[in-house]
């Protein structure tokens, strides 16, 4: 933070730091109000720019503040976690949590720019790094077969955080997400595909009260479930299921949930906002590298796939 402020000042700009409480608990309206009051005290106006320096929590909060402050001012994302670099800083969805749920109050507000400096990842704890790989694997498994194969071949270098590897991984992930978002910025259709693996992931996170599994771990499990379900419907081969499982496990992520049975999953998933008007829309792969929506999968198929995932069957 100090380095950023110094470099802005040395470039002749005025800069002030505002801080927020750490973690998901700080991503709320109280923080927004506090930051908003401070910004008013500092006479921040529409010609100013907010720079969100931090992980996804800071990016979402600062982006939401920028979206509503004086009816919207510019902001720049400077993501410092891998998850924020490959996912949350891209696409302009910014939100805070309310007591009824995560990210339930937000706006679409695109950042002026996103600057990702991968050297910031040197200090990122291992579990934060691995968790973000859940989303990276999703980009390959759902949108780009070559990128998936590249991850299989370079897993050791990725986990070793080799700079050239990370640069490619971040660039590729950003490009894939941006490509989908460009076609459907306001999330009315195609952007939904970015939720590949997220139906079960949300249920797994919720069932564990957001403590048992991190979001990234839950996405890894959700991806495996999506592939197992797709195999039952003849959309992917057993070998493809095994490859996805191997990559998820190799990235240090779990491949099956704990503490959630099929009934809990169905109950939580039915209340999920991604299940529109009771119509069970699922996003499922069509082989590695492509995915699409499928409606009304029978409960029997979902159950058998769930059991297969829990048994940890290999193909
Ligand atoms: N807007 C979107 O499209 C979108 C997409 C995905 C996730 N999200 C949101 O992103 C948030 C999760 O983001 P996150 O995973 O970055 O979590 P986070 O922002 O809480 O950061 C994780 C931890 O890493 C620490 N940290 C940050 N940068 C670091 C660094 N360089 N070195 C060491 N430690 C560092 C943070 O202090 C924190 O303790 C959630 O609130 C989620 O809802 C938003």
Query: What CATH architecture label of the largest domain applies?
Result: Up-down Bundle
What would you call the shape?
A: globular
| CATH class (first level) name of the largest domain | Mainly Alpha
Integer average pLDDT:
94
Main sheet: strand order: 1-2-5
The gyration radius over C-alpha positions equals 20 Å
How many strands appear in the DSSP assignment?
7
Which small-molecule ligands are present, each listed once?
Answer: nicotinamide-adenine-dinucleotide
Relative strand content: 5-15%
Secondary-structure element order, as H and E? HHEHEHEEEHHHHHHHEEH
How would a textbook summarize the main sheet?
Answer: 3 strands, parallel
Helical stretch tally: 12
**CATH fold naming of the largest domain:** Dehydroquinate synthase-like, alpha domain
Tally of separate domains:
2
| Percentage of residues assigned to helices | 40-55%
Query: What is the structural class?
Result: alpha/beta
The rounded distance between the terminal residues' Cα atoms is 49 Å
> Uncertain regions: pLDDT < 50 for 5+ in a row?
none
CATH homology group of the largest domain: Dehydroquinate synthase-like - alpha domain
